[in-house]
Amino acid sequence: MRKKVLALLLAMAMVVSLAACGSSSSSSGSSGSSGEKPETITVMVDGTVFTEANGRAEFWDKCEELTGIHYEVTQPDHDAYYDVVGQTIATGDWPDVIILSSTYYVSYANEGVLWDMTEAYENSSLKERIDAAGSSSVVEGMYIDGHLYGMPVTRGNGCITYVKQAWLDACGLEAPTTYDEYIAMLEAFSTGDPDGDGINGNTYGVSASGFIGSDSPYVNYLPEFYQDAWPSFYQQDDGTWADGFTEDSMKEALQRIADAYAEGLIDPTTLTNGTKDCRTKYYSNEFGVFTYWAGTWSTNLTSNLVNNGVDGELVALEPIAEVPYYYDRIPVPWCITTQCENPEGVFEYFISAMLDGGDVELLFTYGVEGVHWSTEAETLYEGADNEVTYEEGEFHMLDNLETPGTQYTKAHIDPMLALVPITDDPGADTIAEGARTAQEMFNANCQTVTLVPATDEYSDYNGALVSEKNELIAKVAIGEMTVEEAYEEYAKEAQAWSDLIVESLNAN
Fold first, then answer.
1. Dihedral of alpha carbons 474, 476, 480, 486, sign
2. Is pLDDT above 60 for 82?
């Protein structure tokens, strides 16, 4: 039934698109023409673009000023974003442009929700800029069966593990290099007095936003427990595909998590935490080990710790011996839906403009002058420990509107990850040394996640399969099921879905 509904919607969208675009003004996919400039673009974005509390109105007003296009923006709560995306797609009333993570990107591309931008990109000035910047491999990794359905604007990046140096010092520990040392550190952080408040055992070693992620690279928030385990589909050395969830490495990972949870080393609210919950608890000194994004987030974490009266020195761990590498996630692409009436124009005047190396990219990198950054002479946080003074003409980020006492570090595009550099970047010298060091360490110790090809079976069953896996992982983690019981349940409820997907991937 779903495919019939989608087919009908797509047929209607094609008719509307052909009628609205015509044969001459919007044929850039085949001829290299850019299409007509849109008057209005409807956009659905997550919290990686400025939210209402962080100057969203000013941001999109400035974007309208620079591009001459009006934007109608829908921005669900960040942690509920993909629930709302699913509901929106189900209604059949789709935005022109949408941000999608890798799993949804593959599924929606296969279901016909996303416009094929292959020819538009390959005939574009954007491709020339990306090639010149040496970033073409990032875009090439987004192709699905030779077709491109979404455009990343940055490299994927990934998470590294940050440990509070003050907690290590309080417990007389060095940064761990093995799993045994890692667990010993968590025990010390959970049973001792690492925060120095005079009370033993009122802190936790580690917390995370869930025991497993709902999207690739699923294991990135608890890498020390997962080690070489992978809960989804991957390509083996012989080229065939397999479901890593069924392998012994995954069962061993779940046992490690269950054991650590039972010993009180993992914050029990990990089951329900969002990423913002974790950050708030970290800033409040409730736990000591936090695996989070490399690069700019190193500065964000340090600044917010200091702003909360907590020592901000962090150790960015290289992967412990049992962890082969950190995962460089598949970039989050901007996609155009097949209901967009002028996809070529949207591609040229909005998505391509986002990486123009000029004013639009500057906006998406640093935000709005006077709201998010400035070059005026001023002193921020006067009288506080983090007081900083800038001279006239010195580029600097401004006080965070949502979290006063900390400076912004970027807008949507991280300048250290951008696929096209900004010409004469005014903020090039503002990247903090800690952020640069964390990013370089990650880059030296990461492997890019492979995009799983689209098949009908993957689109049909993987969403339900991921939900089943996540439920079983959670139950094992908190002790409601043993590992053995979970896999007995998996065999009854979900193994058939997994087998169908693996068969389709190997036949693809």
1. positive
2. yes
